[in-house]
C-alpha cells in the first residue's frame, strides 16, 4: 500500500489533484510554492520527491511541470486508490509489490488516505454480501475488532474473513456454507492487512473495473 502522507504532503497532493482537474496540466514548482507560501523551491522539490518516493506521483525533474499523478483522471475532488489482485496481495503486504492498477474514487468516500482495493477470489463471504470478483476497500489505519470483516494475509494467501478472538487464538470465519474457518496461532505467518470499509462490484460483464 502507499505510505501515509504527512499533513503538508497531503495538502500538496490534493492541490495537485484539483489543479489538474481545473487546468488539465500540473502546476509548476513556483506555483506550488506561492499557493502554500513556501519561499524555497528546494523545499517544494523535496516535498514532491517525497510524494514520488511514497508512490503517489512520478517526476521529471528536468521539466517545470514534470509531475504525473499515478492513476489519476481529470475528475475533481478524487483520489486514485491502488488495486491489488489476489496474486499480488501477499507481495504488496511485504512492501515489494506494485498495484495492478487504480480505481479513482471521490475523496468523500475514503475513510483514510492509505486505503487500497483488494480483488476478492471466491465466494467464501457471500453471506455477508461479498462475491467473487468484487473489489473490497481495505483501511489499514483502522483497528480491527471482533466481528469486523478484514483483509488478512495467511502465509502467501490473502483472505477476506470475519475476525473473532477465542482466548489466545484468532479465528477467521467464512460466511458461506462449507467454507469453515481458519484458526491462527502464534507460530503462523499471519498479518491483518486492514478492515474492509466498502465494496465495489462491476455490473457490466467483461468491462474493466479499474482505471489507469
Can you characterise this structure?
- The protein is α+β, with helices and mostly antiparallel strands.
- The protein folds into two domains: 7-69, Orthogonal Bundle (Arc Repressor Mutant, subunit A), CATH 1.10.10.10; 78-200, Umud Fragment, subunit A (Ribbon).
- It is built from four helices and eleven strands.
- A nine-stranded mixed β-sheet has the order 4-3-5-6-11-7-8-9-10.
- Helix 1 (7-23) packs across helix 3.
- The longest helix is centred in the N-terminal third of the chain and has 17 residues, at 7-23.
What's the helical proportion of residues?
Answer: 10-25%
Task: From the alpha carbons, calculate the radius of gyration and give it in angstroms.
Answer: 19 Å
CATH superfamily of the largest domain: Umud Fragment, subunit A
Q: Structural class of the helices, strands and pairings? A: alpha+beta
The largest sheet has its strands arranged as 4-3-5-6-11-7-8-9-10
Q: Report mean pLDDT, rounded to a whole number.
A: 83
- Count all strands and give the number: 11
Low-confidence stretches: 87-96, 205-212
CATH topology of the largest domain: Umud Fragment, subunit A
First and last CA, distance: 16 Å
CATH architecture annotation of the largest domain: Ribbon
CATH class of the largest domain: Mainly Beta
Strand content: 25-35%
**How many DSSP H or I helices?**
4
Q: Spell the H/E element sequence.
A: HHHEEEHEEEEEEEE
Oligomer: single chain
Global shape: elongated
* Overall number of structural domains: 2
Amino acid at each position: 500500500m502507499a505510505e501515509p502522507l504527512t499533513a503538508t504532503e497531503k495538502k500538496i497532493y490534493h492541490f495537485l489533484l484539483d489543479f489538474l482537474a481545473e487546468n488539465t496540466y500540473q502546476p509548476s514548482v513556483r506555483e506550488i510554492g506561492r499557493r502554500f507560501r513556501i519561499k524555497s523551491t528546494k523545499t517544494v522539490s523535496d516535498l514532491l520527491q517525497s510524494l514520488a518516493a511514497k508512490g503517489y506521483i512520478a517526476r521529471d525533474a528536468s521539466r517545470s511541470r514534470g509531475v504525473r499523478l499515478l492513476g489519476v483522471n481529470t475528475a475533481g475532488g478524487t483520489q486514485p486508490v491502488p488495486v491489488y489482485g489476489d496474486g499480488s496481495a501477499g507481495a504488496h503486504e511485504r512492501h515489494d509489490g506494485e498495484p495492478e492498477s487504480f480505481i479513482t474514487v471521490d475523496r468523500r468516500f475514503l475513510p483514510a488516505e492509505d486505503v487500497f482495493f483488494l480483488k476478492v477470489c471466491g465466494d467464501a463471504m457471500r453471506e455477508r454480501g461479498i462475491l467473487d470478483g468484487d473489489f473490497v476497500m481495505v483501511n489499514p489505519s483502522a483497528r480491527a475488532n471482533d466481528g469486523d470483516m478484514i483483509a488478512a494475509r495467511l502465509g502467501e494467501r490473502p483472505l477476506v474473513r470475519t475476525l473473532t478472538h477465542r482466548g489466545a487464538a484468532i479465528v477467521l470465519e467464512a460466511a458461506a456454507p462449507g467454507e469453515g474457518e481458519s484458526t491462527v496461532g502464534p507460530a503462523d505467518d499471519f498479518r491483518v492487512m486492514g478492515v474492509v470499509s466498502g465494496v465495489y462490484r462491476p455490473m457490466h460483464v467483461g468491462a474493466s473495473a479499474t482505471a489507469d
